[in-house]
Design brief:
The protein has three helices and seven strands. By secondary structure, the chain is an alpha+beta fold.
């Protein structure tokens, strides 16, 4: 049975080479790994949880996906404008490893560090954990928050003098 491949006339030939190289690398990495190495990587594996970072006028918010990690296994620290989040997802040892057909979830410890801007008030930090998402909220300093300035509209004689000055300068 022949497979049909879509022809893309302007595709770079280097893109195909990169895909082939990635596939070959994964094959050789799996081939070179012995049974003992697979168990060691399972025990000592690490991962990097994805994070969303956004800000508004009042605060800076970080949301880290850390499903399967207990709240007591998370550590959030703030030192010298650097926020560090550490944690560990432990492998369920009550199940035997040889009974698994596939292990795709990552286990082990992780550490993420974020350099915070000077506009963040390091004394006002809140952290919450809900449904596998760690939310860290950092309030901004009062000086960094935007301020609205009221513009006064002058009326009467001052406004007419201003118009006359503008008129005489432009003429």
């Amino acid at each position: 049975m022949a497979s049909i491949t879509r022809f893309v006339p302007f595709r770079s030939p280097l893109a195909d080479v990169a895909v082939l190289q990635n596939r070959l690398n994964s094959i050789f990495n799996d081939f070179g790994r012995s049974e003992g190495d697979a168990q060691e990587s399972l025990a000592m594996g690490s991962f990097v949880p994805p994070v969303d970072v956004y800000e508004d006028a009042q605060q800076l918010v970080l949301k880290l996906e850390v499903p399967g990690i207990k709240q007591e296994d998370l550590d959030v620290r703030l030192e010298n404008q650097t926020l560090t989040v550490k944690g560990e997802r432990k492998f369920e040892s009550d199940k035997k490893e040889e009974n698994f057909h596939r292990i795709e979830r990552r286990y082990g410890s992780f550490q993420r560090s974020f350099t915070l801007p000077q506009t963040v008030d390091t004394g006002a930090v809140k952290a919450g954990y809900d449904a596998g998402v760690l939310t860290i909220t950092l309030a901004k300093k009062e000086a960094a928050k935007p301020k609205q300035v009221k513009i006064e509209v002058s009326s009467g004689q001052a406004a007419s003098q201003l118009k006359q000055v503008e008129g005489s300068v432009a003429a």
